[in-house]
């Protein structure tokens, strides 16, 4: 019996998060279309979708100890959320340093956690990727 948590059978958190975001957008849009409620309050929080997908992508990358770019989505999402909701009186320009700081934090985290890039690690990663592609 195969282990569901084996490297070849792991559920992609990024794909799962993307699917959940699309599901929520569809449900909110539908409930707004049938006048069940006013969806404007939810649409104002759209940057949370960027943050959610970015966190899921980062979780995948950190679990595999590889470089990921989810922190960029998180940084842009936090920047946009802080500026659109005017957290601490922030506007688009004044909230940008917050996004830049989060992007920097992501780079530092990956510098500390990622496996060193060696030819052996790269070869192992390519062979694992090829094995997953060959499986039905």
Main sheet makeup? none
Radius of gyration: 19 Å
Low-confidence stretches: 1-5
In angstroms, what separates the terminal alpha carbons?
17 Å
Helix and strand element order = HHHHHH
In round numbers, the mean pLDDT is: 80
The secondary structure category is mainly alpha
Beta strand %: under 5%
DSSP E strands, number: 0
Helical proportion, percent range: 55-70%
Shape: flat
Short précis:
Helices cover 70% and strands 0% of the residues.
Describe the structure.
The chain is an all-alpha fold. The chain contains six helices and no strands. The chain has helices at 13-33, 40-43, 47-63, 70-84, 92-113, 119-134. The model is unreliable at 1-5 (pLDDT under 50).
Main attributes?
136 residues, mainly alpha, 0% strand
Blueprint of the fold:
Blueprint: H1 13-33, H2 40-43, H3 47-63, H4 70-84, H5 92-113, H6 119-134
